[in-house]
Amino acid sequence: MVLSAITEFAAQEPKIYGLIIGLVAAAILASVINVVAMLLVWLERKVMGDFQARYGPNRVGGRWGVLQLGADAVKLFTKEDVIPRGADKPVFVWAPIVAVATTMLVAGALPFGAVIIDGKEIPLVVANMDISAFYIEAALSIMAISAFMAGWSSNNKYSMLGAFRGIARMIAYEVPMGICVISVAIMAHSLNVVEIVQAQSIWFVIAQPIGFVIFAIALITDLGRMPFDQTEAEEEIIAGYNTEYSGIRFGLLYFQEYIVMLLGSILLVHLYLGGWNGPVIPVISFISPMIWFFMKLIIVLVALIWVRVSLPRFRIDQVTDLGWKILLPLSMVNLAWAVVVGLYFA
Amino acid sequence: MTTANDVLSALQSAFPGAIEEAKVDPERQLWATIKPDRIVDVCKYLRDNHNFDHYSGAAGVDRIDEGLFEVTELLASHGAHQVVALLKVKTPRDNPSVKSLTGLYWNANWYEREIWEMLGINFEGHPELYPLLLSDELMGAWPWRKDYKGYPDYNTAERAIEKVNPEGYTDYSFTPTEAEIKAGTVPFERPKYPTFREREEMEIKGESEMILHMGPQHAVVPGPFLLDILVDGERVKKAFLDVGYIHKGIEKIMENRTYTQGIPITDRLCYMAALTNNEAYCGAVERLLGIEAPERAQYIRMILEELSRIQSHFLGTAEFLTLIASAVYSPFLYMIIDREDVLSCIESVTGARINHSFVRFGGVRNDLPEGFKDMTLDTLKMIRQKTEEYKELFSSDSIYQKRMEGVGVLSPSDARRLGVSGPPLRASDTPFDMRREDPYLLYKDMDFEVITRKEGDSKARVEVRLDEILESCYIIEQCLDQIPSGPIMAEGVPKRIKPEPGEAYYRVEDHRGEMGFFVVSDGSEKPVKVKARGPVYAYFQALPPLLEGVYIADVVAIAGSMDACTSEVDR
Fold first, then answer.
1. Among A89, A157, B63, B538, which residue carries the largest CB count within 10 Å?
2. What is the pLDDT of residues B96-128, one digit of tens each?
3. Test the A interface: residue of B220, B322, B326, B400 with most A CBs within 10 Å
4. Model pLDDT for residues B321-369, shown as the tens digit of each residue
5. Set of chain A residues whose Cβ sits within 8 Å of the Cβ of B322
6. What are phi and psi of B51, to 5 degrees?
7. What Rg, from alpha-carbon coordinates, does chain B have?
8. Do residue B326 and residue A315 have CB atoms under 8 angstroms apart?
9. Distance (Å, rounded) from C-alpha B62 to C-alpha B46?
10. Distance (Å, rounded) from C-alpha B440 to C-alpha B218?
11. What is the pTM of this model?
12. How many CB pairs under 8 A join A and B?
């Protein structure tokens, strides 16, 4: 009811109302994403602590260290912002902004769960596009450009090597990842993420197990997390593309990684784990899809953290080898499988 | 089996007149003074005919009373026999010059450079006589000479001259005052040589090549040292190594302390190997004094040194893990936690976890406390179980296989030629272990296996360490079973240690390889010269050739598998 009222209000003339509504929605979305990403940083530190037989944050903000992130953020905001001598200043300054902005582009098209009103499922998505899966995939690829901007403009050898590695890796992994998304779309008969979720009476992780594995590996690579963090392998190239960043600019780059991790996990949940689908919980049926969605999301996030703390790092040539020689042929197999099964069940 | 007497008689018949004085003391050590012009021939003869293929180091001694410098070359064999030849060459103090052995032994390079920069002895035929440990402004001061007068303080801020160079960075220079020049604390003449940076830049060929610094401030380095790699894309074309960032002058400090005061200083050679460093130093002084520790003390030393080996190998493997994985990598932290229990066992005896200063001339400081046996056996049980787990981790994880197998391969002949010892040498199929080769303490009564691997790659080096942990557990169990009761200090050790004039060399199996102490006494309370021959020095020297042609990521995997310790290299 409320939602339909808002939609009607936005649709009326003049169009300026629609613009205002859109801006407000974008602002709310950005803040929510940022807060959730901060919680994610906290979750990672805490879970990592548990995995490694230590406490993790446990001083600032009580026993659970919940205010640690606030303290970190204040520190990052107040630190000196250093731009190295010899850096390409405009590119250097804009790289973190481009990074965060492109991530926000992804957020615009991703549904964040759904609610049930009057027995009708309403997905919580800002822009419900027909080709949102394709759009998200494209926007995710821009991330590598921002990392390259940061690495190239820093006038630093480590950053440059990190940037080169990032591009080499991106090319090797976006292709199988894209083919996986196509396979999913073929089976769901749609490129719209909402429709893909609704099409999953059987989760696609069961229908396309190979695709799930490839997509998960490619996603971790896209996120640049262990065992695929060659762009910022601190033992080899200090911090890779963000070596020269400090203060709030580093904060943006750092935060962007966690936002992407969150959005990537949401995408994985939507494409393969049935999104918010699940049996309706009787009393609280209104938010029952949200409960299912967040349960799946947290499992995926913890799994990502688990992978990070337990696997050593690949060498860059081994990463590209894996991408081109194993994942790409396998994703082709998966595509063929999706076509056959999709046509058979259609 | 070749004995020292056989070698001596062979030498005397092959080079009549070239050997000025010679003795065999103790049974496996051959001491000889060689005429300066025949040293290369003698060494070549020993290498080719008597298997002296292990160049163990060189020590320079300033005999200011006699107006001489002495250079003692330490030669040994990789397992063919147990004789150590200590060949002494004398050269006058004014215009000192000795023939270089770099043509015979590749690894003589660094040892001779060090003697050159510290004592000013020129090595004829040395291909690259550049400073190793000293900084450029200290060259020409010859700090190891007995008449060294000290050097002005370069760190005084108000005397530094700032100059902005064309690239926009500030250079600092320093000019000494006239008073300092008059007092003789500033060298008048400085040797001429290309600086480290110039030598590097000579090697850059194409536009796609660049020098990448790994150190002195870098995550890969276990301490500050400069590893510069010339890279073309992701490939390393050549590696340059510069050490000396934490040169503490430990050998010179020990010359100015009494023998007993030297023990805590040996701790600081390397914090991971304090006990074996104590052992090597005390063993050398015991040889000078002609005393031997009672049996119980020797057992206590063995137990603690093996425990120390376990903790060192744990930390070495853990560090390797952080290098090929990440600092947030969990098994690294698990190993550190396991190591704490071992440290607690050592602490219950020595009272310290890192710097023990525990071994004494003719014994040990404390006896084992009550309940030590049970506590240690419990810990060993845990260690065995955990080590098996880590071995399984290394052998089952495919990313490890990819990162370690075939990376940094040292063939047996290369490993011997480059002069490495300890786990890297044993991983290259050479069963060379001082505990077997030159048995000290009571290791000759112990039943243990010298662990070797055939592959010689990073993985083999890590596996050797993990297997040695198990072997050390076995040795400790034997010691705990056999340890007799009795005194822990030899009788008749004087309060003031004043050994008879003479020299002694004592080598032990450090956790990382051959650790030897060469001590020279002139009958006073302070040693004339203490030379620490450390294993990591040899690893570091062997590192640049190993790194040629590998990926940048492999630099980390190779350097990490060596288990390096900068503190011991710089001393």
1. B538
2. 888 888 888 888 889 998 898 888 888 888 888
3. B326
4. 888 877 677 888 888 888 899 999 899 998 888 888 888 888 888 888 8
5. 235
6. 60, 25
7. 24
8. no
9. 26
10. 38
11. 0.85
12. 86
